[in-house]
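Sat 14:20. Reprocessing the chain from the morning session after the first attempt stalled halfway. Input below, unchanged.
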Amino acid sequence: MAKNDGIVAVYALHGRLALAMKQGKGFKTMWVDIPDNIIKDDVIVAKNLFATFMKGTMRENGFKSKKAAYVLGSDIVLMRNVNIPRMTEEQVRVNLPFEFRDFIKGELKGYIFDYAYRPQQNETSDSEVPDTMNLLAAAVPTDHYEELTEIFQVAGMKLVKAVPEICVLESLLKLYEDEEEFNKERCFLDIGNKRIRMQVFKKGCFKLSHVIDIGEKHIVRTIADEMSVDMSLARTYLRTNYQDCTKLPRVMESYNDIANEVIKGFNFYEMSDMSSRLNDVVLYGSGAMIEPLVEILEERIGMNVVTMNDTFPSYNTTGDLNITAGAMGALLD
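Finished this time. Tokens:
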């Protein structure tokens, strides 16, 4: 992990900025809400303001670095599991873009492509070399990457890594020391502001993802209506559980609304893959910090449901791993 020393990892999804840096054998982490005039629907709409906000947040919280790693959200980067004939790395680089030709709008030259190689199950040092290769392939719009590079330059840093969140989650899976736990079919359920992302993994590798169009904002809106306040104040009430607002009857109903949509998502997944044996769910994101919501999901999903905080307790030193795991995971080998 030494190659990641001195790098600050930045996670800016769901309207929150999470930072992580290596600190001894552990990590220094923090998170804060991003002002609405800077980011909208996970898209940075004010580049200079974001750079200034990020630089100021780092300074205020003691994050000193000239190098940065940025976590690319699933809405930006296209990820595909591909199987291709065995070829050299140079040949892979030439042929990889064509694996995305049916998924990309516009011209392939408008994207940056990369991949991670995965050994096949029967591939060992003593066995015959397979005729094909399994790859996890990624495609990122060139314009988006160039914008990120400019933002970090304005903030006085160099962008040295851009890591898809899928790869971050795969890195976190490697923290499971028990082989049986590592190999389980597992869903990381990211409960964000406007949407929830189901991201399923099996044997430590990404399988598929699915977006559910509901999130924490549904709860915030209910609190705003019930307590006659604006959305910003309602969000503060939710985070602090002001006047026990997280257990108001209508707010409890909003948790059930979310649970209903999550269950639909799991039913859709199981119907699309009859071989699925999914029984383990890891909650993360700001929604995983709402205890009554977590309790209802544990009760209603009918699977083994835990939060990111509970899954990796040795890394949860500040109690905010549900939100900062995305940044921390970008610094894992």
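The first helix runs from residue 47 to 60.
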